[in-house]
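Dear support,

I submitted the protein below through the web form. The confirmation email said the job was done, but the results page showed an empty box. After a refresh the structure appeared. I'm attaching both so you can tell me whether what I see now is the final result or a partial one.
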Amino acid sequence: MPSKRGVAITSGRIVTGLVGIGIAAVTIAAAGQLTLPTVEIAPRDIRVTPVAGDQSLVCPGPLLALAQDATAATAAGSFGPASVDFGAKGVTPTTRDLAAPDNTSGAADGGPAVITVPGATDGSATPVSGAQSQIAAEADVAGLAAATCTPASAESWLVGGSSDIGRTTLILLGNPSAVDANVTLEVFGAAGRIDAPGAAGIVVASGTQRVVALTGLAPNEPTPVVRVTSEGGQVAAALQQSTVRVLTPGGVEVQGPTAAPATDLVVPGLVVSAPAAPGASSDTASVDDRATALRLFAPGAEAADVVITATRENSKDEPIVVDATIQPGVPGEIALAGLPAGEFSLEITSTEPVVAAARSNSRSGALEDFAWFGATPVLDDEAAFTVPTGPGQKLHVFNPTGSEAAVTLTDADGTETSAKVAAGAGATIGVAAGQSYVLAGADGLHASISLAAPGRLTSSPVVPPNPLAAPISVYPR
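What the results page shows now:
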């Protein structure tokens, strides 16, 4: 039996422990009510501004025709050089030609031109632009074709062309970089994605251009859309389409990439030289390629409900609205039967991202031609462009924003032309063939250049400059 002394000692220890616990609890509770000092250490960052590299633009090169060399029936050959114009503000560009091993006449007519300037001058991006044009009068290739010289990229969309009977489409891949490019072509047609042998693993060597015939990838395809991706070096991609109806040439066109897939697109400066033929439809089936039409493609998994609003330039006419549904993975063409002769800008609003380009035709006597008008990227405040050499040149500017835009056009001599473009409207501005300009106040706008004469028609987009190298933050560990 424990003694009275042991019980007292044990009881004292228990009481002392409970008191200590109580004091600790009160202390912790009190500490929880106190505002304790905090120490914050912001991560150190080092602002680094990379040196802006040179800017290079690639022109597609001279027009090509198949079987120019009798000993090579499937080879492509040029039949004369393209006219190349370019300009830059504050510097003199350097130029060189890409080697063109797939062009049997490349040694005589030259290859695609590469225009290069420093990425920045006095701390600002160097405005540079270039364009090419050529008039063909061959037995199987005839018409006027112009194109904007564009930077190389890792991905681009080509909306246009045809490999139907009497139609020849060539895919042009130029690599201006110092690294070989490994290119994949994804071709989409009436049956969806076309698994074509030879569409992947196309090596475009540094400093060269490759030419790929669409017929070899997707024969008898009237409404193709091509996605071009590259690894290693980047490429400047373009399409050349020529048409022959029975034995009569029906036009030629060279077109570069369109704007990337988006739910809101603009096709500025569509030139309609004649009203649609009687009985033309507005469905999404393949249409007569003499009719004015809009080709659309939804690369996603869902169908796209599309609203096309055609606004006539320099006019207060009510816009013409066309509704359509585009099935996913299958290109569709919408015949724009309601457009009269004139110049229009198309606003395309879609429930799903799409790519788009419009086609128009011009006929006069024995002359016939067509042109593709691609959706253009939205412009920054300032954009440089060069007008291709050719007839009837116009600059088309469309303002999809909610407020009036005041733009200023400055030529190489410093002469300025000012114009206002109303909200939701389009305007044309006179420009000179072969001349380079800088368009200021263009933030949020879209623009293109058209060359048009009876039986001659072509178009080229105005694109924003390459982004200047921006500062980046580096956080040391």
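Response: this is the final, complete result; the empty box was a page-load delay. The helical segments are 4-33, 106-109.
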